[in-house]
Design goal:
This is Transmembrane 4 L six family member 21b. InterPro entries: L6_membrane. This protein is mainly alpha-helical. It is built from six helices and three strands. Helix 1 runs antiparallel to helix 4 and helix 4 runs antiparallel to helix 5. It starts with a helix and ends in a 9-residue tail after the last helix.
């Protein structure tokens, strides 16, 4: 496959993945599909939204920092002004920025999974419920024991909600990392050999 065509496949894939990443991060602000928790958190009535959601790893890292490289990589794959060795060289730098963004999203997602959600919970059946992170210090062991998830009283189903979204962000960030890594190698070949795009500007 020509380096230009390879770049086009990578760019289109990154568009989709960046979109999924942004959407998942935005949805994560609304546990139980309600806006009240985000509102209470914003009004500083105590933490109601998981910290890793507010780090915006899906919007900034897996979203914007991968979307911008995708646009340049897509231009590089075309037969326009960027389809040349210089364009392929620049795509290496953009892809490297995408790697950084994907790593940021990957790290925040992994932390979100490991630390668990913010919820209203009780330490014991007789204790007074309070807001916090009941799974913060168990190194993610709660993930394999769904019986522990019932500790969270509110928002309803918040453990499954966070688990699904952070797991999706983790997978998306991993794919973005691989694709940006491939583009770095592809860019090196394109810089040396050209894009196979017909009449190439040097």
């Amino acid at each position: 496959m020509c380096t230009g065509k390879c770049s086009k496949v990578i760019a289109i894939s990154l568009y989709v993945l960046a979109g999924v990443s942004i959407i998942c991060n935005i949805i994560a602000f609304f546990p139980d599909w309600s806006t009240k928790y985000a509102k209470l958190d914003r009004e500083e009535n105590g933490a109601r939204i998981t910290d890793e959601v507010k780090y915006m790893g899906g919007v900034i890292g897996g979203g914007i920092m991968c979307l911008i490289p995708a646009i340049h990589i897509h231009l590089t794959s075309s037969n326009g002004c960027c389809a040349n060795r210089c364009g392929m060289f620049l795509s290496i730098g953009f892809a490297a920025a995408g790697v950084v963004g994907a790593l940021y999203s990957l790290a925040t997602s992994a932390l979100g999974l490991s630390n668990g959600p913010v919820c209203l919970f009780t330490e014991t059946p007789t204790s007074v419920p309070g807001w916090g992170r009941p799974f913060l210090n168990n190194n993610g062991s709660y993930l394999g024991n769904s019986d522990l998830w019932t500790k969270c009283i509110e928002p309803e189903g918040v453990v499954e909600f966070n688990l699904g979204l952070f797991a999706t962000l983790l997978v998306v960030a991993s794919l973005e990392l691989v694709l940006c890594g491939i583009q770095i190698v592809n860019g090196l070949f394109g810089c040396i050999c050209g894009t196979c795009g017909g009449r190439e500007v040097r």
